[in-house]
Amino acid sequence: MTMRLDDRLLEFLRRPLMCIIAGVDQTGRPSAGRGVGFNVLEDRTTIDLIFSGWQWPRLVSDIRQTGRLAVTFVSPADYVSFQLKGRADLSETEVPNADHAARFITAATDELQRLGVAPHVIAPWLTAQGARLARLSIQEIYIQTPGPHAGMMTGAEVR
């Protein structure tokens, strides 16, 4: 079963965000890396996630092994957070994805600097070197914002 992103979640995804992508190998050992871009496909049930395969090689291996993936988007300004889970396929990035990555990196860098994080601290977090693309078919959506609703599954409506 796939889930469709609603208008409120799409609006949230237009903010400057940080992105953590997590996978798991066949033994259940987790891996994680930082995303540096994404694109919600027109069907709203699929999202392309861009990350550095150079920086996060275990994540590449785990996606190939199991296809299981979770991505958490966090607004650094207020910690509003959502996690999407599902099945993913891995591929090379293409030129439009490089544009998504460049915009994401610029927005995240600007937001983090506005919040007082030094540029030399941010730079290693956000690299598109060896960029890879994981196409996630969304099966679950969770609220991860700290507070009483953290960990709750959300349906078509984000509150």
UniProtKB/TrEMBL annotation:
List the GO molecular function terms. pyridoxamine phosphate oxidase activity
Q: EC number(s) in its UniProt entry?
A: 1.-.-.-, 1.4.3.5
Q: Where is the Pyridoxamine 5'-phosphate oxidase N-terminal domain?
A: 5-101
Species of origin = Camelimonas fluminis
Report the InterPro entries cross-referenced here. Pyridox_Oxase_N (IPR011576), Split_barrel_FMN-bd (IPR012349)
Write down a Pfam family by its short name.
Answer: PNPOx_N
Its keywords, alphabetically, are: Oxidoreductase
What is the recorded name of this protein?
A: Pyridoxamine 5'-phosphate oxidase family protein
